[in-house]
Design a protein that fits this description.
Layout lengths: L3 E5 L11 E10 L5 E7 L1 E3 L2 E8 L8 E11 L12 E7 L3 E12 L7 E5 L15 E11 L5 E2 L4 E6 L6 E8 L5 E6 L13
Amino acid sequence: SNPVLTVRVTNVLGASLGPLAVTIDSAVKVDDKKTVLTKKTLQSVQGDSKLYAINFLDSKPSRGQYDLLVSAVPSKADPRLIANTGVQLKAIVLTQVSIVSAEITVADRDTGGSGAVTKLEYPKAISQPLEADSQQRVVLKFQLKDKIVGDLMSAHQTFVQLTNLKTKQDIVFIAEHDSALNYKLDLNLQTKAKDLNHMNG
């Protein structure tokens, strides 16, 4: 939610070094080594002479971790300054995620029938409750989409939470994705009955 990258530059005692030219020499994405910034000047932050800032998202970086090389140079050379150029920093770009292509199916457990597919649209509820018993499976499918870039994505772990409306009891399952980034949760209601405390709802 905050696009501004702020760097604090001080001496070892935490005091200001006076006016400096602070630049991001390069910003490289860790996973694909793509350079998104070179030689960009940070602006001093009004009211704090130790802070310098830049809107990092102006370069439209995709989500992920970035390696930055930052330099802070005074207007007049000062031999007392060391390790003030090419300093390595880390930055992480987050994103917002939407759930797309979501659908839920109640299918026969043994026959493997596909069953009727109900489309889902967050945050809307389906018009009619689904009914399933121990002889059936409930299959949930969906994809994750980066709201900013617009491409499909994966997450480190994706959880699906079921809540019993009467008891307010929650149970959490993990949805796995395939190579095409299609997530799937396949609940065999006979084998998962114990996890659900054999409760209707």
